[in-house]
Amino acid sequence: MFTGLVEEVGTVRSVTPVGDGARVVIEAALVLSDAELGASIAVNGCCLTVVEFDGDSWAADAVPETLERTNIGNLDPGDAVNLERPLAANGRYGGHVVQGHVDATATITSVTELDDGSYRYTFALPPSLAAYVVEKGSVALDGISLTVASVDASSFSIAVIPHTHEVTTLGRRTVGDAVNVEADVLAKYVERLVRPSL
After folding, report:
1. pTM of structure
2. How far apart are CA 118 and CA 159, in angstroms?
3. Do the first three CATH levels of 8-84 and 104-194 match, i.e. the same topology?
4. Gap between the Cα atoms of 142 and 156, Å rounded
5. How do residues 62-98 score in pLDDT, each as one tens digit?
């Protein structure tokens, strides 16, 4: 389980096709401080497994499902990625429940800088997620725990403080970029309970 609080921005070293999947190697420091083979690390909010690591990089295998559903398949060497280790049992729970199971991607349709230095990002709302994205609810975008500022039938927006804009990859994103979206898991379970025929 993750919290959506990005610990470090890493850099993609390589993406090597392996059949219909890929091996991704990422340069990092903090998330490797207690790394073990088989450990989980969220990359842009997508939970991946450490299959190799050394002092300054680690590798994960991305299966076809991961490449199809997330923006991991669009990564190139040199790209920046948000990284987070799973929550330690004795850690602070500062974000929201993030599983690292990406539901879909959403495209940025506008970015507006406000006079206080914050930003307003608007995204196209994937129809498959419309029931789960609610105003003032939680959403993870590229692994960042954020609050939905507004939502309508075809889009949603978030407000981003200057700190988050600076220390995550969000500040590097522009109109047309796709971000990974993980809707609030609590909404999914509530829907399943009230609509058991799904």
Report:
1. 0.90
2. 7
3. yes
4. 15
5. 999 999 999 999 999 999 999 999 987 777 767 787 8
pLDDT tens digits for 11-38? 999 999 999 999 999 999 999 999 999 9
Q: Are strands 138-141 and 46-49 parallel, antiparallel or unpaired?
A: unpaired
Query: What is the residue-averaged pLDDT of the chain?
Result: 93
Q: Tell the CATH topology of 8-84.
A: Elongation Factor Tu (Ef-tu); domain 3 (2.40.30)
**How far is Cα of residue 67 from the mean position of the Cα atoms in its chain?**
14
> In the chain, count of helices (H) and strands (E)?
3, 13
43 and 143 in contact (C-beta within 8 Å)? yes
Q: Give residues with Cβ within 8 angstroms of 3, minimum separation 6.
A: 84, 87, 91, 93, 94, 95, 96, 97, 98, 145
Longest Cα–Cα distance in the chain: 49
Percentage of the chain beyond pLDDT 70 is 98
Amino acid at 195: R
Q: Where are the domains of the chain?
A: 8-84, 104-194
CATH fit for domain 104-194, picks 3.40.50.1220, 3.90.960.10, 2.40.30.20, 3.40.30.10: 2.40.30.20
